[in-house]
Amino acid sequence: METKAYAALLRGINVGGHRKVPMAELRALLTGLGLGGVRTHLQSGNAVFTAAEEDEEALAARLGRALEERFGFGVELLVRDHAYLSAVADACPFPAASLEGRQLHVTYFSEPVALANLASLDAAAYLPEEFRVGDRALYLHVPDGLGRSRLADVLAKRAPAPGAVATTRNWNTVVRLVELTAP
């Protein structure tokens, strides 16, 4: 059976010394699940691997159960294949090549973004910060970085996809995950 490359995007681990998931242990866990070519990127919960399975939700559920068994706490995560990651990067509505990685972010969602939740947002009030919606993704341009962004806080409170798993990566990581999952 042919394998396919995926990225697992773990949410909220290794932040401020909480919910620790050492990358070496994550690699061992994924390898133990029979996944191939396992690699991690940074300490913030990015893993790439190959698998014969094609159902991203089933893979995410399997990984989530294994993580909870191993580390004793639940970890929300998304699994996305190379084609999706590449399409999201290619569809970026902002001039990514002329921006620093810290100025551009993508929030990946498990479900489509509910545009109705964002319709009443006065986007002009947050300029020069801007956002655009993509395929289960929200692009956020923050010239002064995410930590200083007023718009990011407002978007998080409006829950663009209520009940969905959501996790954010800066542009450098977005590009690197595309590279790491490339055939």
In brief, what are we looking at here?
This protein is of the alpha+beta class and 183 residues long.
Account of the protein in words:
The chain is 30% helix and 25% strand. The protein is α+β, with helices and mostly antiparallel strands and 183 residues long. The two termini are 16 Å apart. Helix 3 crosses helix 5. The protein is globular and about 50 Å long. A four-stranded antiparallel sheet has the order 2-3-1-4, with helices on both faces. Strands 6-7-5-8 form a four-stranded antiparallel sheet.
Features:
single chain; 183 residues; alpha+beta; Alpha-Beta Plaits; 2 domains; 4-stranded antiparallel β-sheet; globular
Topology of helices and strands:
Blueprint lengths: L3 E7 L12 H10 L3 E6 L4 E6 L4 H16 L5 E5 H9 L13 E6 L20 E5 L2 E5 L8 H9 L7 E5 H11 L2
Antiparallel strand pairs: 1-3, 1-4, 2-3, 5-7, 5-8, 6-7
